[in-house]
Amino acid sequence: MASERVIVIGAVAAGTSAAAKAKRTNPDLDICVYGREAHVSYSACGLPYLISGAVSDYQALIARTPAQFARDGVTVKTEHEVTDLDVEAGRVTVHNLASNTTFHDHFDRLVIATGARVNCPPVRGIELQGVFRLRSMHDGLAIQAYINEHQPQHAVVVGAGYIGLEMAEALLDLGISVTLINRSKTVLSSLDDDMSNQIIERLEAAGVHLALGAALEGLEGKADTVTHVVAGKVDYPAELVIIATGVQPNSELAASCGAELGEAGAIKIDQVGRTTIDRVFAAGDCCTVDHRILNKPVYLPLGTTANKQGRTLGAFLAGHERPFRGVVGTSVTKFADLHIAATGLSVEQALHHGYHVRSKIIHSTDHAGYYPNARPITVKLVANAADGTLLGGQIIGYDDVAKRVDVVAVALAGRMTVDEFAWQDLSYAPPFSSVWDPLLVAAQALAKG
């Protein structure tokens, strides 16, 4: 009997995770992965730190190479783009980008892990030299090479989400003047305004010029190279521009074969990665994911989610069904030495989804105030006013912010109430926390109303 053939489209996070897990679990599977990029199985989240120089070699971001996959029995073909699907015939059309040739391949089951692309605004000058998106290894290396060659003095970052802030930090570290433009008057949409304002103060203190509440209108250039960015009717000098205006799913192939799409046009999948089309599966940034608070599929593209969906799908393809229950929306980043984390719903998001909410902000220190080097930490918790169930948390500080937000994330997944959370047995010693951890202080304050 011939081995079952699985074709995977996409070779970064979800696709390679699915392929590796499936092959480990069922070595009899015949698995081929097609990736349109030259690099595979890498950490896109590490790219800002490669550009800044914090990561010295791009190869450190690569988890596995095609040769390593081959040793484990998985074929990975780089610079191969799948351009068409015929699900009924079990056939894909593949374009070899290196040789400019096209061929067909056949599958028994198909995995679509095509990721997402930057949601680039349709303005003039967007294709000028010196204007970059940051989504792929190719993008990161191209930005790095451009900076090394042209030595820009002024950069504009468009978009104040996680990538926008991380790139602002990276460019400042390289001695480049940075203007950060954002359509909203705040930064980081996962935070409420009262928390976002702290980030704004830190950006300004670091020398970032902020143009908030300013819509991008266009880019101007000379000799096909960017020189200025126009936003809010103001010209900002720029020899380098980073477009960081969010992403949209690469779901066109799935849509072409009739797969149902969900929020933001992402591929709708179940908890093991099945689409609505028989024999077609999907995972990663092109897909929806179940939100454990909202109890519905949403579009929240994150590297952690992509890897979990990929591994879940790989196990399922190999005959082991262990559903991935979904996410609560946990994220963390930093700007300079300030760490910023959020999980669950902000007040604004909760109100948007119809909740009546209560929230509380507390200001404390990250460990006992009398122990040396205690630093400020701000915690905000959000709860359902109807039953006291925790809905979200936001934390800004310095040390251990990421681990503290993880505690809140677990509480959200367990559907704890504020009262339950306020009495959790968290660790204490003066170098690490106050006797009442800031999370518990925030929960106590919220419980009292």
Primary descriptors:
alpha/beta, five-stranded parallel β-sheet, 25 strands, 449 residues
Give your account of this protein's structure.
This protein is of the alpha/beta class. It contains 12 helices and 25 strands. Strand 1 (5-9), helix 1 and strand 2 (30-34) form a beta-alpha-beta unit. Helix 1 runs parallel beside helix 8 (303-317). The termini are far apart.
What's a concise summary of this model?
The protein is an alpha/beta fold and 449 residues long. The chain has helices spanning 14-25, 47-52, 66-71, 137-150, 162-173, 193-205, 252-256, 303-317, 347-352, 401-413, 418-421, 438-448; strands at 5-9, 30-34, 74-77, 80-86, 91-96, 101-106, 109-112, 116-118, 131-133, 154-158, 177-182, 209-212, 216-222, 225-231, 234-237, 240-243, 247-249, 280-282, 289-291, 296-298, 331-335, 338-344, 357-365, 376-384, 390-397.
